[in-house]
Amino acid sequence: MRFIYTILGIALLATACNKAAKEDKKEQEAQKIAAIERHDEVAIGTRQMERTVPHISAIRSREELSYAIEHYWDGFNFDAGERVAEYDTVDMCRALVEYATLVMPTGDFSPMRRLIERAEASRPVLDYFMTITDMVLNDPNSPMRNDELYIPILERLVESPLLDEYDRLIPQRDLERAMQNRIGKVANDFKYTLADGTTGKLHDIEANYTLVMFNNPDCPMCRMIIDDINASPMLNELQELGRLQVVTLYPDADLEAWRRNLDHMPRRWIVAYDDGCVITEQRSYDLRAIPSLYLLDAKKRVLIKDGTDVRVIEEAIVYYDTRR
How far lies 75's CA from each of 52, 311, 318, in Å? Predict the structure, then answer.
């Protein structure tokens, strides 16, 4: 009997020791996880995204470009949830610019939509990408603003299961605006009025190219662009040959300010205003930022949308002339 009690005692002791060992192991694992989490914690706005693909300057083939586009975001944690706030927004905007630079030459902008689909891992991550894509691709003052890249993003956002009807209002509004006057499409027609009351329509202008400039008399940058156009030998020659017509349109209501500026405008230009501010009311052109340049071909198809650089206008004309 004593032998049996001894065996039972040893068994109970072993069980107790084993249980204690397991509990110690769990505690050690918990402490280890906590230590890792403490180590991984990063101050808000300081985490840099790891670049896992070569810079675009190092890409030498279509295969390398396709690989870079497919794997560009491998260094970003789409499962970050609330911790997405740890990422450095400036660095992330830079990353988005780099990604857009990879995507643009392909002419296939569907990767922008897939990026948003990956961001739908959680609402915080989706909100974060909504913010940076708006800053880079939609802000009228962003040098990387590009409706063609932004449209696939907006098309996904208005379908996203993570957004309710109210959340979709802004993406839907932005999508409607971005769809106006797309590259390669015929520009929206508009009626213009000259200082003497004469009216005309954009689509009735006969020229190989039409350069439309939405401007404001109190806008310093507008004056700079007007001076750049006047100083361009190429654009002056095209105007003399009748191949280019420049149209400046004042879209606002203060006609006194507009009239005071008329003497400073070139006489061979169509210098007009939008009577009744119809364009603004109908939102037929995106006038969030002025000046805004649109280069159109003879059929009034958009070649340059919402530009501000006269050199780009010149380069576009050279490019399209060589394709004729």
Answer: 6, 37, 40
* Residue 222 bridge partners (DSSP): none
Q: What value, to the nearest 5°, has the Cα angle with vertex 302 and ends 301 and 307?
A: 160
Q: Check which CATH number belongs to the domain holding 270 and give it.
A: 3.40.30.10
Residue 248 lies in a domain: yes
Are residue 215 and residue 260 in the same domain, yes or no?
A: yes
Give yes or no for residue 198 having a pLDDT over 50: yes
Distance CA 179, CA 182 (A): 6
Number of C-beta neighbours around residue 238 at 10 A: 21
Instruction: Give the integer Cα–Cα distance in Å for 193 and 84.
Output: 51
pLDDT tens-place string over residues 253-295? 999 999 999 999 999 999 999 999 999 999 999 999 999 999 9
**pLDDT per residue as tens digits for the range 24-46:** 556 655 554 444 344 456 789 89
**Residue 36: inside a domain:** no
pLDDT at 23: 57
Give the whole-angstrom CA distance, residue 247 versus residue 274.
12
Residue 89 lies in a domain: yes
- The pLDDT, as a whole number, for residue 2 is 41
Q: How far apart are alpha carbons 41 and 141 in whole angstroms?
A: 34
> Where in the sequence is the domain holding 124, given as residue range(s)?
56-178
Same-domain pairing of 158 and 205: no
Tokens of 173: 């509004």
Whether 29 is in a domain gets the answer no
Q: Which residue reads 């401007």 in tokens?
A: 215
Rounded distance, CA 188 to CA 242, Å? Answer: 23
Q: Are strands 191-193 and 199-201 parallel, antiparallel or unpaired?
A: antiparallel
Positive or negative, the Cα torsion across 228, 234, 238, 241?
positive
Q: How far apart are CA 299 and CA 248, in angstroms?
A: 19
The number of folded domains in the chain is 2
CA 211 centroid distance within chain: 24
Q: Is 275 helix (H, G, I), strand (E, B) or coil?
A: coil
pTM here is 0.82
